[in-house]
Amino acid sequence: MTNDHEIGRVVAVDTAQVTIELNRELKALTRSTYEGTIEVGSINSYVIIPVGFRRIVAMVSRIVLTEESELKADKTIVSLPLSRRLMKATMIGTIDENEFKQGINLFPILDSPVLITKREDLDAIFGKKCVRNYDSDEPGYCISVGRSAVFPDYEIKIDPDKFFGKHAAIIGSTGSGKSCSIATILQSVIEHPQVDQTRFVILDTNGEYRSAFQKVNGNQWSDAKPAFKSLYIPTDPNEKGKLAIPYWFMDSNDFVRIFRASPGMQRPVLLNALSSARNSSSTGSAWLQLRQDLIKECNRVLGYCSGGDKSDAKAIRQLCDGLVYYLNNSANTAAITLGQAYPSVTPDNLKNLFTTVCNIVRDGISSEGGKFESYAQIDLGKQAKIKGQMDPLLSTLSRLPDGDKSLSMATADCPSYFSRTDFRYRHIEEAMSRNDGSSSRARDNCSTMLMRIFSLLEDSRFDFLFGPSTKEWPKIKHSLAAFLRDLLGLESNPQSELSDSGNHQDSQLPFYDRQRKGSSRSNVVIVDLSLLASEVLENVTALIGRLIHEFMQRISFPESGIGRGEFPVVLILEEAQNYIREGKKNEDDSISKQVFERIAREGRKFGLGLVVASQRPSEMSKTVLSQCNSFVVHRLQNPEDLRYFREIVPGIYGQLLEQLSALAPRSALVLGECVQAPALVEMREVDPAPRSKNPQFFKSWSTNGKTPDIENICAKWENNIDNRDENVEGTE
């Protein structure tokens, strides 16, 4: 009966909240109904406001007791103040035909009755009537993440399509339970009876998540549960299966950032060297690079012809001499292939042309080869002769070649193999020479970049990226495909013709070893970045994110065999504030911020979901957080973080966020599209737990605690494997 459940009346309405005056006879803040005794006014509980045949659901956020005096005409009569209990509640949704939907499109009027929730209301709010066998096209709220802290009989379930597909943020101060929440949500998805495979990639900057999916027996790690099927990729160079990301997967922006190439001369030199290095390592595109170089150098010669300075003649002679030398040595094979594409452009014809141009500008030279060598000015006659030599070559190279030759060539962004040694000692030098007639000026301008290139290539901390300084990584087949299969937890492709161990030794590229030996499918891939050098963390996270994003974009191409969004991947970013920082004014955005902001904006279209975890949301990119449509919010105590987070989430949740600073561990507010209704949740128990428990200081102080093997730790830290093995007994 309605009267049994009525607790008050609406006395104020705004766009998001209602103010309710409780009935005066409701003294104990409880109401006895045929369903039992129900508490009234509990924070985070729900009330019902009927409006026609629909019912508005509001979430209680505040209750206060006020007093007001009754004015009497007879001033000789003393009246006692009357107590008045007011309750504020945030309107969160509507029940229509026993189906709850978030959002408000109608509002109550003043003096509308307010009811406590009945069992059927709670069933609708929490979606208890949902079928057990979920439709894979529209799964609905099927993944349990915990129980309601106010109504413990009800599970809180999320919609995986909305939670992962529209991005989610898990926020909370240190020790509030973020890592456990991430782990238990992933475990709940994987253990769902209808889930056969998942693709979760965790960028673990604290080294916490391995223990949540794997267990150790002696020195061997295995899946904690059969369904988990996890792959752990460490950054410790002394461990097997360590992280390796070949440098040729980086694009031009990655190289510019990691080598800190400044605008002006450094960046063009670096990009020219990258393009040249990638094409020279490809037998199919070396002639294309030569074609491009010839067009560029011929135009430079014509540019010098229009000048009136005698030094222009010397510059033309130096260019032509250099091109003849280039054709005789580095570009000999490419010149032969170019001649096959353009029959009139043979190596001999090219060398004769540049020799002829060289002789034209030598006409009138005095003291040739001597200390006082002096060139004659390039007059109109010489200009006409040089143009007569260059124009036919440029005209030929500017059109498509005969036959089926393709003009596509590797750019600086193409993830194709190139030799690190050739790039360092040959292509950089050639790029500096091409940038200026002599490399001396370019070398002066590029000195800081060159110093950084050489130091990074020799730094053992970057072996995972550039390979060991003493041995170069070999050219292997399908390196990018093998890396992506490994990173996304896919099984090996038996039809893929990977390079054998004769060309590529074991342990050089562990991801390639796993694919070559027959890797099985993994539901969770944990990339442990905890030992990664801090100065390269942003570059590595950005590289991994960009490769996955660009791969997801290319899935929509016909060669993929599937449609856009049919191969979803979820990327979990732990401690995201470390590499997706909101930059200060006049500060360049980090490369990882640019990459993940793009994923946050565009990833949903291609099936790439983000789950970002942070203990300092105020330091995170506003763009990334604002693109998240679901939030799991643990205790937040920093005033700056609380203020910032209120600006990010929809304003309707403003009053609910007031309780964040007082939440208990494992308790979280779950907000957004992923849940039927906003709720305070006691998160599901994680089993097993990530390695994120709080240290027990007093236990260690009050007992004879263990002492770490400091020598062994330092030996690994110093990469001194021989010293560790000789001096430490009983170690691995």
Low-confidence stretches: 724-732
> How much of the sequence is in beta strands?
15-25%
As a percent range, the share of helical residues equals: 25-40%
Oligomer: single chain
Q: What structural class should be given to the helix and strand makeup?
A: alpha+beta
Alpha plus pi helix count: 25
- The gross shape turns out to be elongated
Please give the alpha-carbon distance between the first and last residues. 72 Å
Radius of gyration: 35 Å
Q: Provide the spatial order of strands within the biggest beta sheet.
A: 11-10-22-21-20-12-19-18-13-17-16
* Count of beta strands: 22
The average pLDDT is 83
| Major sheet size, sense and barrel closure | 11 strands, mixed
What does this structure look like?
It is built from 25 helices and 22 strands. Strand 3 and strand 4 form a beta hairpin. The protein is elongated and about 125 Å long.
Summarize the structure.
37% of the residues lie in helices and 18% in strands.
What is the fold's blueprint, element by element?
Elements (H helix, E strand, L loop, with lengths): L1 H4 E8 L3 E6 L7 E4 L2 E4 L6 E6 L2 E15 L13 E15 L2 E4 L10 E4 L2 H8 L16 E6 L6 E4 L1 H6 L2 E4 L6 H13 L9 E5 L5 H4 E4 L2 E4 L6 E4 L18 H7 L7 H15 L5 H20 L4 H19 L3 H10 L5 H16 L17 H18 L22 H16 L3 H7 L1 H12 L4 H4 L12 H9 L22 H8 L6 E5 L5 H21 L14 E5 L17 H16 L1 E7 L7 H5 L3 E4 L5 H10 L18 E6 L6 E5 L13 H6 L7 H8 L3 H7 L5
Parallel strand pairs: 12-19, 12-20, 13-17, 13-18, 16-17, 18-19
Antiparallel strand pairs: 1-2, 1-9, 2-7, 3-4, 5-6, 5-9, 6-7, 7-8, 10-11, 10-22, 14-15, 20-21, 21-22
Helix pairs in contact: 7-8, 7-13, 8-9, 8-10, 8-12, 9-11, 11-12, 13-14, 17-18, 19-20, 24-25
